[in-house]
């Protein structure tokens, strides 16, 4: 099961990265087509794109931010999956949705909701993309009733 979770996580992250790259490619092609249609010389187009890349402008700044968000989301997903596996080993059965910061309306409606890990996986985990806040979600699932060590056991 852990290997299956790792493969699924790898697929999700790879798909998100491919989507970001494809969208950026389309954006660059559109900007180049617009610049060519307006009569810009190839050298000027090249210089404009290099300046955008160097300064983190509209095209490449967006690309960097999307990459950063994808990596951050992947790390959060990996941490959540790792913790859920540890909680499962420790016999924790129930969790509560805890919001952080100023939650989006979707997450705010789940504040304090209780359920099993399967339940939350079926309705959407924090940061899974189901909500308005998407990968920016800072909510967590806290365990209910775990009376063991203050840190989870290592496998």
3D architecture notes:
- This protein folds into two domains: 1-89; 93-155, no CATH class.
- It has a three-stranded antiparallel sheet with strand order 2-1-3.
- Helices cover 60% and strands 8% of the residues.
- Helix 1 packs antiparallel against helix 3 (58-89) and helix 2 packs parallel to helix 3.
- It starts with a helix and ends in an 11-residue tail after the last strand.
- The protein is elongated and about 70 Å long.
- It has five helices and three strands.
- With 155 residues, the protein is mainly alpha-helical.
Alpha-carbon distance between the two ends: 14 Å
What count of helical segments does DSSP give? Answer: 5
What is the H/E string?
Answer: HHHEHEHE
Number of domains: 2
Low-confidence segments, given as residue ranges, are none
Instruction: Give me the secondary-structure category.
Output: mainly alpha
- How can the largest sheet be summarized? 3 strands, antiparallel
Radius of gyration: 21 Å
The whole-number mean of residue pLDDT values reads 85
Strand order, main sheet: write it out.
2-1-3
Q: What is the 3D form?
A: elongated
Helix content: 55-70%
Instruction: Report the portion of residues in β strands.
Output: 5-15%
């Amino acid at each position: 099961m852990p290997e299956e979770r790792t493969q699924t996580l790898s697929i999700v992250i790879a798909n998100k990265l491919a989507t970001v790259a494809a969208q950026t490619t389309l954006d660059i092609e559109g900007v180049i087509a617009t610049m060519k249609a307006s009569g810009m010389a190839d050298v000027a187009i090249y210089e404009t794109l290099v300046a955008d890349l160097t300064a983190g402008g509209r095209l490449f700044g967006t690309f960097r931010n999307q990459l950063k968000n994808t990596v951050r989301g992947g790390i959060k997903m990996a941490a959540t999956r790792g913790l859920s596996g540890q909680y499962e080993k420790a016999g924790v059965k129930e969790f509560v949705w805890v919001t952080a910061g100023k939650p989006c309306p979707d997450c705010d409606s789940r504040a304090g909701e209780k359920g099993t890990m399967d339940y939350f996986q079926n309705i959407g985990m924090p940061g899974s993309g189901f909500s308005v806040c998407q990968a920016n979600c800072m909510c967590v699932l806290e365990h209910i009733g775990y009376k063991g060590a203050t840190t989870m056991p290592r496998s």
